Amino acid sequence: MIEITSLSKRFGDFTAVRSLDLVVPAGELFGFLGPNGAGKTTTMRMIAGILQPTAGRIRIAGHDMVAEPLRAKRALGFIPDRPFIYEKLTGIEFLRFSAGLYGEAGPDVDRRGHELLALFDLEPWRDELVESYSHGMRQKLIIASAFVHRPAVIVVDEPMVGLDPKSSKILKDLFREYTRRGHTVMMSTHTLEIAEGMCDRIGIMQKGELVACGTMDDLRASTGADDALEDIFLRLTGDRVARELIEVLDA
Prior knowledge:
Blueprint: E1 2-11, E2 14-24, E3 29-33, H1 40-47, E4 55-60, E5 63-64, H2 69-74, E6 76-79, H3 91-101, H4 107-119, H5 135-147, E7 153-157, H6 165-180, E8 184-188, H7 192-198, E9 201-206, E10 209-214, H8 216-223, H9 229-250
Parallel strand pairs: 3-8, 3-9, 6-7, 7-8
Antiparallel strand pairs: 1-2, 1-4, 4-5, 9-10
Helix pairs in contact: 3-4, 3-5, 8-9
Organism: Gemmatimonas phototrophica
Domain ABC transporter: 2-232
Protein name: ABC transporter
C-alpha cells in the first residue's frame, strides 16, 4: 500500500504540494486527478523516489522512502508519462536490464519478459533495438518494465498516452486484475472518463492540496448533485474558468 503523511514539496518560495495526507490500501485502483500545475506529478515523483520531499513521510508496502529507499523502491513500479529508454538495447534486453535493477535475473525474468512483450504485441520486436520502436511501442515497453519485477505497488502517470485502443483495453484489464490480486495501483490521468470507469476511489488535487477524495458516490455527495466526474471536477477546480468561457463566447 501507499501511505502519505503531511507530505510537502517547495521549490524556493513556491509550494507545489502542501501537507498531503493519503492512504491507498492494497487491492485498490486509485485515480489521482487535478488541473495542470495542481501538484499531481510532483506528488507522484516523490512517491516514486525521484524527488525528495521538503517535509512529510512516504511509505511503500510498509517501507519508508527516506529511511529504507531501496526496499521502498523495490516494492514499486513507476510508469512515467514520457518513455525514456536506452535505445541501444533490444526490447527483451531492456526488460532484463529493468529487472536487474531490482536484483532479479535468470529464466523467470526471461519468461515474464516474453509474456509481457506478447501481451502488448511486442514479441515479434523483442530482438529489435528500441531506437526502431514507435512512441506507442516504447510506452508499452515502459509499462512492461514496471511489471517485470512483480512489484506490490504500481504508480502510473497518464498511462494511456500513445496507446492504441487495443493496448488501452489490455492495460485497463491488467490494472484491474493486478488490484484484484491484492496489489495497489495509483493512476494520474486527465481522461476523466477513464478515472470514473476504472477507479475504486478518486482524489482531486488543486493548488497543491487534496480538495476531494472518495468513491464516485462520496464525490457526488460532497457536491450535492448526481453529476458525472467531469462536472464534479469542474465544480471543485475550474467552475470559474468555465463561467468565464461562457461570458467570452456570449460577449
